C-alpha cells in the first residue's frame, strides 16, 4: 500500500502493518536501531527488544529495552540470533553513511523479517531546509519555534547530514535491489508541521499554498508540504542476505 498526503495518523497505520507482520511470531526479536529513549511502535509482550545507539545517555534513558548495545549503526556486527523486525525511526538522516547502516541492518534481519524506516522527506520544505542549513538553525527552530525547552540531558535533536541517498525514491530502488518487498509506504505531513499549522491561520494557509503550488508546477509529482516518509520493507522468506547486507538467494 502506498499513500501520499494528509490522511490522519500514519503511526497507527504503521502499527497495523507491524501487527500483521508479527502475527505469526510467538516471541519476536526486535531491534530498535538508533533507539533513543523510546519506541514509537507497540510490540507484543513476548518480544525481546534490543536497542542500539551511539550515545550511552540515550541507552540509559530507554527503559523498554531488554538488551542494550552501544554502537554505530554504520559498522555494527549483527548479533546472533537475527531479528524478525528492525525499527529505525528518525535516525538515517543523521548518518554520514546511511546505506552502510541499511546494509548492516539488512544483514541482521531473519528471512521473512521486516525493516521499518521513518525519516524526513528530502523533497519537502522541511527536508531541503534541514539539509542546507547548519545544525544551529535546526536547534534554534526546535527550541524557540516548536517550544522544545528540554534540558541537555533530555534533548532529542541531533546534527543532520541528510544524504540524497535516503530520498524516498532512492530508498525504494535500494530496497528492490536488496530483494525487499515494499509492503507499506506513506509520504505525509509530519507532526511538527501539523502542530505549527494548528497554531496560526497564516502558517496554515502558507503551507496549503506551498502544497498547491508545488503540486501544480510539478504536475502532481512533488508536494513540498509532505515533510516525512515511512517505508515498511519485508525480506521475503526465500531471501537470505550475506554479511554485507546483499541478497544472495
Ligand atoms: C532523533 S533520535 C531518534 C530516536 C528514536 N528512534 C525516536 O524515534 O525517538 C536519533 C537517534 O539516533 C542515534 N544515532 C545517531 N547516530 C547514530 C549512529 N551512527 N549509530 C547509532 N545510533 C545513532 C542518536 O544518538 C539518537 O538517539
Question: Short description, anyone?
Answer:
By secondary structure, this protein is α/β, with parallel strands linked by helices.
Q: Please, could you describe this protein's structure?
A:
With 249 residues, this protein is α/β, with parallel strands linked by helices. It has eight helices and eight strands, in the order βαββαββαβαααβααβ. An eight-stranded mixed beta sheet has the order 1-7-8-6-5-2-3-4, sandwiched between helices. Strand 5, helix 3 and strand 6 form a beta-alpha-beta unit. Helix 7 packs across helix 8. It starts with a strand and ends in a 15-residue tail after the last strand. The protein binds S-adenosylmethionine (SAM). S-adenosylmethionine binds next to strand 3.
Question: Which features characterize this protein?
Answer:
globular; 249 residues; 34% helix; 8 strands; alpha/beta; binds S-adenosylmethionine; eight-stranded mixed sheet
Amino acid at each position: 500500500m502506498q499513500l501520499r498526503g494528509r490522511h490522519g495518523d500514519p503511526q497507527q497505520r504503521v502499527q497495523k502493518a507491524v501487527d500483521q507482520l508479527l502475527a505469526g511470531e510467538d516471541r519476536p526479536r526486535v531491534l530498535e536501531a538508533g533507539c533513543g529513549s523510546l519506541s514509537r511502535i507497540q510490540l507484543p509482550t513476548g518480544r525481546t527488544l534490543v536497542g542500539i545507539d551511539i550515545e550511552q545517555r540515550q541507552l540509559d534513558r530507554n527503559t523498554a529495552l531488554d538488551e542494550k548495545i552501544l554502537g554505530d549503526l554504520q559498522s555494527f556486527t549483527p548479533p546472533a540470533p537475527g531479528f524478525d523486525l528492525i525499527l529505525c525511526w528518525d535516525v538515517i538522516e543523521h548518518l554520514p553513511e546511511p546505506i552502510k547502516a541499511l546494509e548492516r541492518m539488512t544483514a541482521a534481519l531473519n528471512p521473512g523479517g521486516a525493516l521499518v524506516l521513518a525519516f524526513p522527506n528530502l523533497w519537502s520544505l522541511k527536508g531541503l531546509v534541514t539539509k542546507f542549513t547548519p545544525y544551529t538553525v535546526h536547534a534554534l527552530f526546535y527550541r524557540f519555534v516548536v517550544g522544545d525547552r528540554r534540558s541537555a540531558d533530555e534533548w532529542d535533536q541531533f546534527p543532520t547530514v541528510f544524504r540524497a541517498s535516503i530520498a524516498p525514491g532512492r530508498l525504494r530502488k535500494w530496497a528492490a535491489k536488496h530483494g525487499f518487498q515494499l509492503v507499506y509506504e506513506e509520504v505525509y505531513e509530519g507532526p511538527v508541521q501539523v502542530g505549527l499549522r494548528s497554531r496560526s491561520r497564516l502558517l496554515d494557509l502558507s503551507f496549503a499554498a506551498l502544497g498547491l503550488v508545488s503540486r501544480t508546477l510539478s504536475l502532481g509529482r512533488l508536494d513540498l508540504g509532505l515533510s516525512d516518509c515511512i517505508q515498511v520493507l519485508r525480506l521475503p522468506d526465500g531471501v537470505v542476505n550475506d554479511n554485507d547486507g546483499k541478497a544472495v538467494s
